[in-house]
Amino acid sequence: MRVAIAGGGTGGHISPAIAVAEAIWERYPDTSIDFIATPRPVDRRMYHKFGDSVHILNPPRIDRGLLDIALLPFRAVREFFKVRKLLRKLGSSVLFATGGYPSFFPVAAARSLGIPSIIHESNSIPGRANRLASRFSDKVLTGFHSATSGFKRESTYSGNPVRLSLERYDRGYAREKLNIPNSIPVVLFLGGSQGARAINDAALKAPENVYVLLQCGTRDKERISEESSELQRIHVIDFVDDPALLYSAADIAVARSGAMTVAELTWFRIPAVYIPLPSAADDHQKWNALEIADKGGALVSIQDSTDADSLWRIVRGLLNDDRTIQRMKTSLETIMPVNPAGTIAEIVISAAGEGS
């Protein structure tokens, strides 16, 4: 059996692709899996260990300027036939796609070849590419309950898959590995794979009695490293593909609310203060965060009305309230399905059997 997984362009699309692949291999170790990725650096970094199983396509976008829009029909036809040829060459039994612009053409090509396809929408509000791709797919899965109403066809809530390789470490072990004293509260700041200047700047204003783990993003690493050079209790990381130690060491998190960040923090039972990216399409990050906050697992702070001082007042309030922290952790235990990656893996394998 051969499975093709299309997911690329951002860490939020690559992480669930790898999570489902790991779950398939855990249950069906003889399965061959091919990944369809983009030329972007994040794809190269996160997929590098899969070697020749990664196939690079460069699908067109409509947000790159007038020239790209004018050339879109030509690039679309070229890409469609390129991915169609690839799927036929690979002999794929099923296609699983994690959304975004790199997923549309593989789904359309799979349909033309009679290959079953499944798409997964990780955000609370379906993106344009997934809404369009859903017309050609055999099944639609969603990471949030609210996303099921965003499609014009039936969809199924599965939860967002988290990589099995993200191990939950003992808190003391994680802190020892990161050289963090056990006696001090740890706040993890996450701006996503690209970083977030507003979140990074707030992290630099941390009070003395808090240790900060700051994943600042590659673009902002030089500036943040320079500005934090004399701050003793801030550990700056540009980006890590395996943040398990960071998650395991943290008491609470301050983060953007991209779908996979939310899923991983929920999986690790980390209470969070979410600051949604204001420019996210359809304001989906705000709705991602609100779905968790409405169930008691997080707080939401809007960037335009949040400065560093007000953010740290919220954070200190949580750190000083053990009862609220425990209540949030208990809520997080009930939010996510037991094993979304395993559930999706079984759906994918079942579809492959039906297709054959």
Description:
The chain is 44% helix and 15% strand. The protein contains 14 helices and 13 strands. The chain has helices at residues 11-27, 41-47, 66-90, 101-113, 128-133, 171-177, 197-203, 221-227, 244-249, 259-267, 284-293, 308-319, 322-335, 340-355, and strands at 2-6, 32-37, 54-56, 94-97, 117-121, 139-142, 156-157, 186-190, 211-215, 234-237, 252-255, 272-274, 298-300. Helix 1 runs parallel beside helix 2 (41-47) and helix 1 (11-27) packs across helix 14. The radius of gyration is 21 Å and the shape is elongated.
State the main characteristics.
44% helix; seven-stranded parallel sheet; Rossmann fold; 356 residues; 15% strand; alpha/beta; single chain
Nutshell version of this structure?
By secondary structure, the protein is α/β, with parallel strands linked by helices.
Secondary structure layout:
Blueprint: E1 2-6, H1 11-27, E2 32-37, H2 41-47, E3 54-56, H3 66-90, E4 94-97, H4 101-113, E5 117-121, H5 128-133, E6 139-142, E7 156-157, H6 171-177, E8 186-190, H7 197-203, E9 211-215, H8 221-227, E10 234-237, H9 244-249, E11 252-255, H10 259-267, E12 272-274, H11 284-293, E13 298-300, H12 308-319, H13 322-335, H14 340-355
Parallel strand pairs: 1-2, 1-4, 2-3, 4-5, 5-6, 6-7, 8-9, 8-11, 9-10, 11-12, 12-13
Helix pairs in contact: 1-2, 1-14, 3-4
